[in-house]
Design brief:
Layout lengths: L2 H4 L7 H7 L4 H27 L3 H18 L2 H15 L10 H20 L4 H8 L1
Length: about 130
C-alpha cells in the first residue's frame, strides 16, 4: 500500500475493483476515469428526477449509482444510493430529497480519491502489491 493511501481513509477499495477488472490496470484506470467524469452528473440527474417527481428515472439513476458503488466497493455510497432506490421503488421518491446531500458528499469523496487510486498504478511495485 502506498504511503499516501496509508494516511487517508479511502472511500472505496481499489484492490476489489482491480479484482473485478481481472487485474487489468488499463481497464481499471478507464473505469475510474469514466466514474470521475460521470459521477457528479449522475447525482445531478438524480436530484432533478427527484425534484420533478419522476419516480422511474430517480429509481433508475439511484440503482445505477448503487451499481457503480458496488463495483468500487464504496460501501457508504452504496448504502445511500440503495436507500434512495428503495424509496423510488416504493413510490416515495419525495422522501429521498434529504438524502441527496449525503449521496453527493459520498460521490464527491470517491471522485476526489480517483487520482490517488490511479496514481498507485504508476509505480510497478505498487501494481504488484495491489494485485495481491
Amino acid at each position: 500500500m502506498s504511503e499516501t493511501l496509508a494516511r487517508i481513509d479511502p472511500p472505496f477499495v481499489v484492490t476489489d475493483l482491480l479484482k473485478r477488472c481481472m487485474g487489468n490496470v488499463a481497464f481499471l484506470k478507464r473505469t475510474l476515469t469514466k466514474f470521475q467524469t460521470r459521477g457528479m452528473l449522475d447525482v445531478d440527474g438524480l436530484q432533478r428526477a427527484i425534484s420533478d417527481g419522476n419516480h422511474a428515472e430517480a429509481t433508475r439513476l439511484a440503482h445505477s449509482i448503487k451499481g457503480i458503488a458496488a463495483n468500487l466497493s464504496a460501501s457508504r455510497m452504496y448504502a445511500v444510493a440503495g436507500e434512495i432506490e428503495n424509496f423510488g421503488r416504493a413510490d416515495r421518491i419525495d422522501a429521498a430529497t434529504g438524502m441527496i446531500d449525503s449521496l453527493r458528499a459520498e460521490v464527491s469523496r470517491c471522485v476526489a480519491f480517483v487520482p490517488v487510486a490511479i496514481a498507485q498504478f504508476s509505480d510497478p511495485v505498487a501494481e504488484v502489491t495491489c494485485a495481491r
